[in-house]
Amino acid sequence: MTSWSAELPFVRGTTPPYYAAILTTALSTEPADLVGYAEAAAEMADLAAQIDGYLGMEFARDEGCGITVSYWRDLNALRNWRDNLEHVAAQRQGRERFYRGYRARISRVEREYEWARQG
C-alpha cells in the first residue's frame, strides 16, 4: 500500500480473519425523535473504540438509510460491545425514538483487498 491510498476513509490495520458487525438503519421521520441522535451516535463510536478488540468503524448515510460497519478482532470482543451497559441503553433509545427499524448482521471476514487510484 502506498501513502496516497492511506488518505482514503477505510479502516486500516485489519488482518483476516476478523468480524464485522453491520447495522443498517432507517431513521425516524419525526424531527422530535431525532433530537440528540448525532450526539448519541458519536458517543457510541467513542465508546466502541474503548472496547478491547475493536478494530475500527466505517459508516455512510443518506436520507433513507444508514449503514455502520464496526470491525472486531473476535466474537468475544463483539459480545463485550453488544453487552456493554451504555450500548444496551443506546440500543433501547434507538428502538424507542431514533429508528423506524434496523437490521444487524454479524459476518466473519475471511479475505480483504483494496484498490485505489494513484494521485
Plain-language structure description:
There is one protein chain. With 119 residues, this protein is α+β, with helices and mostly antiparallel strands. The protein has a domain of 76 residues: Alpha-Beta Plaits (2-Layer Sandwich), CATH 3.30.70.100. The chain is 29% helix and 30% strand. It has a four-stranded antiparallel sheet with strand order 2-3-1-4. A hairpin with a 4-residue loop joins strand 2 and strand 3.
Draw up the topology in text:
Blueprint: E1 18-27, H1 37-48, E2 54-61, E3 66-72, H2 75-83, H3 85-98, E4 99-109
Antiparallel strand pairs: 1-3, 1-4, 2-3
Helix pairs in contact: 1-3
SSE succession:
EHEEHHE
Number of helical elements = 3
Task: Report the top-level CATH class of the domain at 35-110.
Answer: Alpha Beta
What's the total count of β strands? 4
Structural class: alpha+beta
- From the spread of the alpha carbons, the general shape counts as globular
CATH topology assignment of the domain at 35-110: Alpha-Beta Plaits
Beginning-to-end CA distance, first to last residue: 13 Å
Mean pLDDT: 93
Low-confidence parts lasting 5 or more residues at pLDDT below 50?
A: none
* Gyration radius from CA atoms, angstroms: 16 Å
Query: Major sheet: size, sense and barrel closure?
Result: 4 strands, antiparallel
